[in-house]
Amino acid sequence: MAQPILMPKLGQSDEVAPIVKWRKRIGETVNKGDILFEIETEKAVLEVESFFAGRLIKIVVPAGQAAPVNATVAFLGKPGEKAPEVAAAAAHPVVEHGAGGRHGGRPSRVENKDYALSSGGSGSVPTVAAPLAATAVPLKPGRLLISPRARALASASCIDPAGIAGSGPDGRIVEKDVRAHLEARGYDKLRISPAAKALAAQQKVDILSVTGTGEGGRIMTEDIQRALAERPKPLTLMRQTIARRLTQSVVTTPHFYVTVSVDMGDLLKLRQEAKARGSDYSVTDFILAACIMALQEAPEVNSSTDGQSVRWHASVHLGLATSRPDGLVVPVIRDAQKLTLAELHQAAKALAARARDGKLLPEELSGSTFTVSNMGMLNVENFTAIINPGESAILAVSSTLPTPVARDGNVVVRPIMKITLASDHRLVDGAMAARFVNAIKTKLEDVSLWTRSI
Fold this sequence. Notes:
Blueprint: E1 3-6, E2 16-22, E3 29-30, E4 35-40, E5 45-50, E6 54-59, E7 66-68, E8 71-77, E9 108-112, E10 132-133, H1 148-156, H2 175-184, H3 194-203, H4 221-229, H5 237-252, E11 255-263, H6 265-276, H7 283-297, E12 303-305, E13 310-312, E14 318-320, E15 322-324, E16 327-329, E17 332-333, H8 341-356, E18 370-374, E19 393-407, E20 410-424, H9 430-445, H10 447-451
Parallel strand pairs: 5-9, 8-10, 14-18, 18-19
Antiparallel strand pairs: 1-8, 2-4, 2-7, 3-6, 4-5, 6-8, 11-20, 12-13, 14-17, 15-16, 19-20
Helix pairs in contact: 1-2, 3-4, 7-8, 7-9
């Protein structure tokens, strides 16, 4: 019998997932472990492996449409086998993808173990439980009431008829309404190059919304291209998640900020000496290690609250904010307090590389108890970061810049790095935040502490 392929459950918050791309076509042979399709979650694009072998005989949910978890998205079977009909499930909203909808880099891979077995006695043959069918609902505007002749005239004129008031039955737009709209907007006086009009027709750009920059206001191809570039594009699931979570944090968490300046001169010199010996530690490695030590000394900062109670975390699950072309992700170094500086270096390097390549798994993107956001490589003097929901603080690390400072009554130039701690005032008060961020500063400036580590 045909084997249903189900939409896998990938995380606690992912109940619906859009299929970005099918990697197999109908009629193709599928081996166990082959990539069937790619889906977009709130945090990454993932490759879904087949847990079964067979031939792809039916695709229920095409690329660009979404399905709830555990819904049937396709069937595998034998050559010539007919796929069963599936009953429609409740409709779910679909998130459309903008240009380059696939996140940068190759997606992560998950197994599609999308089957349920009925219980049976010894020697019984497992049977596939009845799958939930998917309803793929494209995101489209409501149906426009317009006559065929009016639609043809609007299309030939390269205009959008949606804003035209209809005089026909039930507000139906008829041909005379389109002609009246064109006359009122001065359509006959427009000047447009043939190439621009052809591009506008192809891309469905309303000519009346375009300002011409050519001679005498003539609409040129570049004007149509500019209009296309300015079209609203739907946010990806990742961008929507970032917007939702950070808005939630700003609205529900009372942020306050403490900034200190760290003299990085001695540590940078030590790092160069270590690099000459073959130890390629980054500045981030030392910052992460200093944060871990400070968090163990101040468990109040390594905590979370639901608004009613506070929970101190025994382990430091360190988030490392990492920028990608499609958004910001925060891979997590778990039990970071157990790692040596060398192990921390390897873990951070590996996570950052997988983040940039889009290969992080969902479990690597959740559960952090404290986050470091380092913009030191971007030539910024100072910035503040928004606390990740579920944490009590986040450290913003700025660039190390040559700065005139007072030393022993003299003005000297030193490599200074500003670090700013954003804290949840419900859990962390001003004095505690000051002590914590100064503890990080002290550790980074204490070269003897790091000499033992490298």
